[in-house]
Amino acid sequence: MCSTFRSDEAPVADRRLLKEGLEVLKKLQYSPKRFPTKLRQISATGRMVRQASHIYEFGPFQLVPEERQLLRDNQPVPLTPKSFDLLVVLVENSGHLIEKGELLKRIWPDSFVEEANLSVNVSALRRALGEGPNEHQYVETVPRRGYRFVAGVKERWDNGTESSIRELTEEDDDSGLVADGARQTSPPPPAAASRPRVSFRRWPLVLVGLLLISALLLGLNAGGLRARLLGKGNPVRIQSLAVLPLENLSGDTSQDYFADGMTEALITDLAKIGALRVMSRSSVVQYKGAHKPLREIGRELNVDAVLTGSVVRSGEHVRIAVQLINAATEQNLWSESYERDLRDVLALQKEVARDIVGEIRIKLTPQEQGQFGGVRPINPEAYDHYLRGRFYLNRQNKADNEAAITALEHAVATDPTFAAAYAELAQAYVWKLFLFAPGDRQWEEKAFVATEKAIALDPNSAVAHLARGRLLWTPANHFPHEKAIREYRHALTLNPSLDEARNQLALVYCHIGAFDEALQESQKAINTNPNNNLAQLRIGQTLNFQGKYEQALSVLRAVPQDANPALVGYQIAWALFNLGRKEEASATLEQLLRDYPEDSGGLFTSLQAVLAVSAGQERTAEDKIKSAIERGKGFGHFHHTAYHIACAYALMNKREQAIKWLQAAAEDGFPCYPLFEKDSNLDNLRQDARFVAFMAKLREQWDHYRDSS
């Protein structure tokens, strides 16, 4: 018969004894991958004594593996955990080539990681040791094979009173890579006695306890204790990350834009990693200057980790310090500081992002690895204009849009090869064209030139491809849905976390009747950026087109009031009308016309025409239709107004006019077959042969879009 051992059933004395044994086991165990020559002694009286510190010396450095310290002239040198592990392995095998595959197994024993992670940590190690790009004073690269530590190393044990020193040479071992713990070393000097750990007379009993515990732990791994004791607990798995606004430590608030720009640059670089969900800038900006617990921020953003840090700009130099923190436990997983000349700030941004990726062990595709390659130096003045431009562009109002355009035009004039500045300038022109000057064609031309220039300089600019997609999908180009979809898809391949590309993609899908795809892309945009209110509006619009008016109303009323209130109000009015709440719909439209008397595109007036017909006021409806047509001249999305006019004529049973306007809506960018098929406002047309033929043609087009989506 087998019985299960329970520690709470053992006598008190035995439990105390087992506890002492467990403590001894934990003290005696060590990871040979990190500390292969860790030494302990037991005095003749059976008392544990202070262990000797194992120290490696090379140049001005001292490496103390047991304390995980690298000192230079007795001052700590910061190293990431993996770079430290790498240094220990290299130093312990000084003079010997260590193959890359072996290093990967030694540094990441329980994980599969790309070789790029090794290169990242070698680079970090060389920087910490003060090696230049072409210097090999300490770490030598053997092309296509591995690395060798080439500096002379002295090895000593220090117990605080005396030390024993010897020099490591290649003659110490003829086998190339030295096995853990296999070096023949001189015995350390006698160590001074310390406080008793376990009395000698009880040592045999302790050993019995150790044997029992070892059998249980190694055989059963009860409660995961074996993994914890052996230091092989599962590493924190990070699949989502929020980069919180970097703090400006310059003391000059006018430099806030610089810290904000560095934050956004890190977000942009990290967001290009497909396996990592990175929260957008607008979703984290709310935490700027906030003092919320990181655990609470992580919970609100639904992320595994947060990156915090600070930036200091001093003249032509910039210093950045960052910390990677477990959002659930607030444990500091990694930290590092960097300092560079401002001309190398783009390379600095890539380096920081690359180090973060190395720490969280995300598997990169070859294309993603390539994005961390070398970048050219940047003109500091151009970069300053660029950051100011991005700062103003994010504010999305007319005055700041003009300020953004001015700053970004200065950036590209100062450095005509600055691809990122051209991409942001293209975005600024696009916003100007669609939001603030829709009738001024010069902005479309300028946006086109800036977009193509950005892509010519950097074909992998996701922002430029987003701008190109928006420029393509216009009335002047007859709304080429498939071309726009390809551009947005390409932008998302380059940057999966570019939430505005998902919002624009959802907009196209919604117009062509691919409702499931529209909802999916809108939700992905919100997952990346919970503050993307346009994506929330898009969900409400799509639900309206699906005929799910109650759901649409609930979503639309949850959209913040400052998020395009005219479009939100129009969609709310449409939902209310179709729910039979016509008085509420009418009151909503009247308020919208008071707030926005220009009625861009005639949207409100055309919807008033539908309401008038439903109330039996056909003459009023005809007047509203004429007014809507007049107001809608030149409006980019007049197809929605055309659709309402078709609905009004269908309700009046004027089939010819209704079909005419329905065809106009479809040809002008709104071939929304599922909506036309189900909308009860069009029921009077169902038996008309012209409508049947029109819908058959539209169905073929819809099937094609679905197959290619």
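The above is record 1. Record 2 follows with the same two-line structure.
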Amino acid sequence: MPDISAVRKAYLEHSAHSGHVLLPSASLVPENDATTLFTGSGMQPLVPYLLGQPHPAGARVANSQKCFRAEDIDEVGDNRHTTFFEMLGNWSFGDYFKKEQLASFFVFLTDGLGIAPERIYVSVFMGDEKSGVPRDEESAKIWQELFAQKGIKAEVTEGVSSETGMRGGRIFYYGARKNWWSRAGGPEAMPAGEPGGPDSEVFYEFTQVSHDTRFGAECHPNCDCGRFMEIGNSVFMEYRKRADGGFDRLSQRNVDFGGGLERVAAAAADEPDIYRAAEPLLDIIAAAEKLSGRRYGADAGETSSFRLIADHLRASVFMLDAGIEPSNTERGYILRRLIRRMVRRADMLGLPEYALAGLSLSLPKSYSGVYPEIGEKIEKIAAAVRAEEEKFRVTLKRGLGEFRRAVLSAGKKSLSGDEAFYYFQSFGFPKEMMLELGRENGISVDAAGFDTEYEKHQELSRAGSVQKFAGGLADRSAATTALHTATHLLHQSLRNVLGGHVEQKGSNITAERLRFDFKHPAKMSPEEIAAVEKMVNEQIEKDLEVVREEMTPAEAKSSGAIGLFGEKYGEMVSVYSVAGFSKEICGGPHVSRTGGMGKFRILKEEAVGSGVRRIKAVLE
């Protein structure tokens, strides 16, 4: 059975053989990209090149990208969802298009990995009248030809659902909700300037899995019963959204392919449970089995807990490696939530307290060949996991004390949904524990009301993410571009005023303002803030030229460019210089000259974590 290391290696070799330059994985923390808290796809760091900027490595690139998707946290526990994963990806920037891409992936699956073509089903774009994008008949014809080469007559159908079933099809037309891709979702959800396009998804059929009628009377490729699993998606990114809601063609036709490494490995192994097909996850589960005396697969609830611990622990290790620390805001909050969810499930499995740190030690073995830094930092990472578990157990103990005082000792006979959610949100006090204590003490707990409050909280979080995306750097407006250049001026000014220890820890740029996080141990004084503000404005008034150069990472470092040199870069990088003042590795875009950007003003300076400060500023 091929493991994920073998599948990753095979894919990268296949891509290199077809003329792609192999790129290292970008950081899990996006650099100069406000569209999301985490890198959630391989294309995320490549947006400037999809919009027409020449890539230093050429028109064909590929990699295996570390990804994290917070929106999948509540889905973890089944046999196919994870928060952290690797995305196999290849891109064409105005080079090959549909015919070459679909054939290449099909050949990789069938000839490279030995997957039976009879198990493969595909979908294509039905067209969208409202957005003016036509039906993708070209991809449907290409797929028919590819299946015919394997002796399979592939019927094309549309309108399939849980009521109609497969209708004898192998190639299925779906609408924009299923077969259109952009980082924001469908055509209507895309902000102005965002690239996107129709896509063609590939599904693998696990014939040993019977259809579950809870998901509908009949099965079809997009059914959630588990018989079919999406393993790859080729996006034909040739459109860009206009401010009036319409679409223009991009200056070049691009291919953006992504396939989940763990899912492709599961298909290659004909294993519907990706936790059995991915050895890093299986190693954690095996170690947890020994410590708990429980067996993976024996009980549905316990199996869900094993999966959650394996996924969340791997994700936490990679987050900590990326420099994220547990906190109550943004990335740090997500990390804290992962660790606390693990602690609860570890207790439910009967694992010893503080076992999670020890379980993390199994991961370097699986990743030593591709991410050696995990092994180099694992002791420090394990210590951070333990420290967060210790904090949570103190909080949990305090929450239990408060619950006993305010609910049990007070003689309450019921607990409303919003009250129950208060204990969950304030103390991390699990709903299951409240229900258990309620049963033991004759107190009714409104579980449905709790779920309603929890869903409200989730909707607010999702809305915040959408708002963050809609105003992000990806819109490439003049205002956003100017503020992006202002972050470079701000970064260098902070280093000049506060010292060379200052390092960027994150940024969020909208058309209205910039937000810049940086490493610094103390609150800035009013004099320091004024000095930084003055220095930025001086560079704007000088009308300095902004120049983009391409060079190797070593050349960039020796030239004095600021960059995350602990991260892996490709053979060539883009370096933006503001004449005589600042120089940074960056994907762009930037203004051509600083004059006319406006007056820079700092609105606020505050702490966001241990040793991390945040500045909010505007151009007026």
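The radius of gyration is 26 Å.
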